[in-house]
Amino acid sequence: MHISKIRILPNYRKPWARRLAKTLASFLREHGFTPAHKNVDATICIGGDGTIFYANHRSRISGAVLGIGSKTSIVCQLKNTNWKNYLVGLLRKGKVEKRQRLLANLNKKSFTSMNDIVLHTHNYRLIRIFVEISNKRYSFEGDGLIVSTPTGSSAYAYSAGGSVISPTAKNIQVVPICPYKRTIRPMLLSDSVKIKISADRSSDLIIDGIFIMRLRAKQTVTILKGKEILFLA
């Protein structure tokens, strides 16, 4: 993949990300790249994993994505302490990997997820969760449910008992959150399945750590494989 024009998206809440964005613009020009806002080949998100997820949520990522984060970042390819050592090589090489996203449909609205889609209790009481996977139905009581991409498998899904899988795998993972008496276990599924989730009482819908809305009892969210996103590798 040839990369010439690059969008820079810093997390403006982080002073170091704002400073780095200014340095990065000059750095890119010095090495023959053009910082731009439209018709770009790549997007560099500065701030951490959440910055990438938020940019995806706002549909601000164009071309291949590259993240610059802190030492705690996992999804970001580079750290704010070493980015100068590797950035030019990654951009000139132009190698990308395709990663699966999820599409959540609700009330004629659609949301994309790079990490996970979570249905969660909002008042610390157990809720009964209904899951339909390609016409096979399950239900259990617990705190919630995670539907995870391969990228998100090492995050909330893993903490809740799911498996870590390759970020380029063609899978969707369904992980119950604290199921009562462990009546249901994590499931690793093909990315071709259709998943419907709902709860017997009101619950919260959270996508990539972003609160989306409070769901009514029995209000159903349909989850499908979404469009792949390119990560510089």
Describe the protein in words.
The protein has helices spanning 15-30, 49-57, 83-93, 156-159, and strands at residues 5-10, 34-35, 42-46, 64-69, 78-79, 96-99, 102-106, 109-113, 116-120, 127-133, 136-142, 144-148, 171-177, 187-190, 195-199, 203-207, 210-215, 221-225, 229-232. The strands form 4 sheets. A 6-stranded antiparallel β-sheet has the order 8-7-18-15-10-11. A 6-stranded antiparallel β-sheet has the order 14-13-12-9-16-17, with no helix packed on it. It has a 5-stranded parallel β-sheet with strand order 2-1-3-4-5, sandwiched between helices. The termini are close together. It is elongated and about 60 Å long. Strand 10 and strand 11 form a beta hairpin. The chain has 4 helices and 19 strands. The longest helix is centred in the N-terminal third of the chain and has 16 residues, at 15-30. The model has no long low-confidence stretch (mean pLDDT 96).
By CATH's scheme, which homologous superfamily of the largest domain applies?
A: Probable inorganic polyphosphate/atp-NAD kinase, domain 2
CATH class of the largest domain: Mainly Beta
Overall number of structural domains? 2
Give the mean pLDDT.
Answer: 96
Question: What string gives the helices and strands in order?
Answer: EHEEHEEHEEEEEEEHEEEEEEE
Shape-level CATH architecture of the largest domain: Sandwich
**Helical fraction:** 10-25%
- Spatial strand sequence of the major β-sheet: 8-7-18-15-10-11
Proportion of strand residues: 35-45%
Q: Any idea what the shape is?
A: elongated
Largest sheet: 6 strands, antiparallel
- Write the CATH fold name of the largest domain: Tumour Suppressor Smad4
Q: Name the poorly predicted regions.
A: none
